[in-house]
Amino acid sequence: MTIPKTIGTDPTPPGAKVRYEWSGFPWWFIGIVAVIAFPLFKILTDDTWKSGFDFIKDGLSLTVIVTLAGFVFAMVVGLIVAVGRMSKNVVLKNLAIFYIELIRGIPVLVTIIFVGLVAWPELMGALGISGRAGVASPVVKATVAVGIVYAAFIAEVLRAGIESIGMGQREAGMSMGLTKFQVFRLIVWPQAIKNIMPALGNDLIALLKDSSLVSILAVRELTQMTKLWTGQSFQFMAGYLILAAFYLLLTVTLSIGLQWYERRISTPR
User: Where are the domains of the chain?
Assistant: First the structure.
């Protein structure tokens, strides 16, 4: 009985390779487009939906400003807290841990209300700054509030990324005559940022969505503008579907951009 030769042949069943290749198609993106298609169609064909879109879109700029400014603030504070968390100084280390556990143990909305309506006004009053000053505006209060919240989460992400770099590399840098700051800037940070980019991207997207909570401070961002429009028009389905479409577009665009950046920095040059 002759045994068929199989060496060198492709064992993949007919059509399986095609199915595998199609499985990599971004079907999720098609689903997102389909979800957005209905509000878009209504905006183009219904005057009520169009008026709602025109009203709500005025809050887009503040949503973006609060998100980006809050993230930058959180990165700066988070790095300081992460350094304190890794410090050998008992006082600094315990203060950093206290801050992280305190913020992570309180709901985001409660922290935003406390910072925006209690802590920040009290601080401005203690410094003799008028309530009409720019630093006392609702946008600044909202930015500081979300930054304080996410600094606690980002601090742990930064700490994990920095500690993932082996001590041997730091000692090698020190043996070459580099200062501790140069070792961090030239050796530790470039490698750490690659390791923590996915986690930082997730925090940025989460901050974008949680920026809707600053509507409690009367910041006229997307969610607040939706509340105002639905309150006077009573078109709740139209208003909140438009709002959902806005956030979906923002988060998906941000997610795609972050994926591209992660691939870019991970590609050897």
Answer: 61-217
